[in-house]
């Protein structure tokens, strides 16, 4: 007899409760266990989505359209603001959504924080100008922050490097005679634009042996990686080693050794283009790219 073990997974959509009371505080003493024990967990390594429901003290959903709503994450230890993020107002009455992307938690230390949600509206209704902010209460005791725990549950290790060796370079039109100088390309490497990083820093290094020629970097915002590089890709600027000088390409003359480069772009894909000199007898033994 064989047994099959089934593991249950759950999707939980339990919104965080917020209270709005038209700026009139009512010291209502009711059983409020759920609202007083609310806590948010943000997991590093994934995108996080938190739903909020805005009610009055009687827990009736309240309209929030007309407000500009921001969430503020505050370090408990230092009381410093860690980030501010706008909320998306849902079409459902009283519902708002906070989305914290994976990249926004990269530099945030795991631990305990507070979250405050503030609604802003025009000081003079229907008049563009000064905005005034009013915090939502997180319970009927007039607290305005919710405890947040940032966890490392799913934090990912660094992604592997992408490597192109001498035999991996592709001629633009295989099988067709190409006039000198010979131009070839690497395959497309993903550049992590989907991670929505504030700064997308990339680096690459090359190991060459007696190589003479020119090396360029190309980028693309196209969704498909294998488009014709001369149609869908554009040249990128980069720096070499510890130099701050920005260049469009680098030329080598009978060079043997290792050197490295950096560039900072938000891109979908990256390709490398080499143009060998007519007299070149050397090789690009290895190119390593990290995004």
Report what the structure shows.
It is built from two helices and 21 strands. With 291 residues, it is mainly beta. β8 and β9 form a beta hairpin. The protein is elongated. About 8% of the residues have low confidence.
Q: Helix proportion of residues, in percent?
A: under 10%
SSE order, one letter for each helix or strand = EHEEEEEEEEEEEEEEHEEEEEE
Counting DSSP E segments of at least 2 residues, the number of strands comes to 21
Rounded to an integer in angstroms, the radius of gyration calculated over CA atoms is 27 Å
Task: Could you tell me the CATH topology label of the largest domain.
Answer: Immunoglobulin-like
Blueprint (SSEs and pairs):
Elements: E1 16-19, H1 33-36, E2 40-43, E3 48-55, E4 68-75, E5 81-86, E6 88-89, E7 95-100, E8 111-122, E9 131-135, E10 145-151, E11 162-165, E12 170-171, E13 183-185, E14 189-190, E15 201-220, H2 229-232, E16 234-235, E17 238-240, E18 246-247, E19 250-264, E20 269-276, E21 283-290
Parallel strand pairs: 1-3, 2-10
Antiparallel strand pairs: 3-7, 4-5, 4-8, 6-7, 8-9, 8-10, 11-21, 12-13, 13-20, 14-20, 15-16, 15-19, 15-20, 15-21, 17-18, 17-19
